[in-house]
Amino acid sequence: MKIHLVSGGCGFVGRNMVKRLYKSTNDKIFVVDDLSIGTHPSEWFDDFSSEFNNDLEIIGNEKRIYFWKGDFRDFLFYFRQNPRYIQDKYGLEFEKFSDVFHFAAIVGGRAKIEGDPMVVALDLSIDAEFFYWICQHKPNRVLYPSSSAAYPVDLQSVTHAIALKESDLDFSSNLGTPDMTYGWSKLTGEFLAQIAAKHYGVSVVCIRPFSGYGEDQDLTYPVPAIAARAANNENPFEVWGSGKQGRDFVHIDDIIDFIFILLDNVKDGSAYNIGSGKLTSFLDLIELFSSFAGYNPTIKPLLDKPVGVHSRYSDMSYVKERFNWYPRITIEEGMRRVYNAAVERIKKGELKK
């Protein structure tokens, strides 16, 4: 019996991974999340039903999803005390987890990264305990999500904006300065992934997703927030900073597609970009969403808001060369999906009109 572990499995990326695993396999999925940011499966799992085994919630008619509510570090602590913690407490007999997807993290938009950097630094403790555990547990395969925030910020300025290559981060030379505590934690995680692979024989791959987005993303992130405001015909249309700062937007479905390609082909802890290779400004996004809504708003810059680096986008040439992979969802198609989802949420009264 295969059981996959998804930490942070109720957050944006985690729940999309859980849904993909559920639809594409017949395996069991063990989800850990404290719901501090994520949402309970009853809000996003189709045909939700559940029952309990002690404090473990068993979800779905097929009873293939197990939901353990709590801090992932507590979960790992129980494993350190007893490597057979799940088997002994819940009677789930298996040797070890098959695929492990580690999405548990302190995450949020720019306001969180710049507004509460010490809280974000807790990712260091989460990841350190995670990598220690996988070196003992030895799952079949491990996915560690790093971030484009690990790249040096001096390559992402107004005067020095380049497409970021995997080789721009080299642990054997000068790494540069990543983006705030979030970037430092992810850079550290990549280093631990390489150690886990080289010294402990763990099969692990890292991803550096750029600006991932999707229909069910939280409104603290810019894409769904801008889509909702366009659907509400906001005018004047507020934008953080000048709006000229740009990002590389990639749809969550493309991110998950490439994760499975990497798991099948990479074991050494190395990291790969996931992006479109195109720079899109927030003014471009507003123009696109307002065109969907059929109006032409006046732009109102909010220059006192945190904006992060000026330009962050990926060089996807290495990924295309090695894996012949590129995103299949265009920014127009993906943003249209997000906009349509916002319209539906407004109709249902889930968003203010």
Task: Please describe the topology of this protein.
Elements: E1 3-7, H1 12-24, E2 28-33, E3 50-53, E4 56-59, E5 65-69, H2 72-81, H3 85-90, E6 99-102, H4 110-115, H5 117-120, H6 123-137, E7 141-145, E8 163-164, H7 180-200, E9 204-209, E10 211-213, H8 222-231, E11 237-240, E12 246-247, E13 249-251, H9 252-265, E14 268-274, E15 280-281, H10 282-293, E16 299-302, E17 311-314, H11 317-323, H12 331-347
Parallel strand pairs: 1-2, 1-6, 2-5, 6-7, 7-9, 8-17, 9-14, 10-13, 11-16, 12-17
Antiparallel strand pairs: 3-4, 4-5, 12-15
Helix pairs in contact: 2-6, 6-7, 8-10, 8-12, 10-12
What can you see in these coordinates?
The chain is an alpha/beta fold and about 350 residues long. The protein has a single domain (about 5-215, about 250-275, about 310-330), classed as Rossmann fold (3-Layer(aba) Sandwich), CATH 3.40.50.720. It has twelve helices and 17 strands. A hairpin with a 2-residue loop joins strand 3 and strand 4. The longest helix has 21 residues, at about 180-200. The strands form four sheets. A nine-stranded mixed sheet has the order 3-4-5-2-1-6-7-9-14. A four-stranded mixed sheet has the order 8-17-12-15. A two-stranded parallel sheet has the order 10-13.
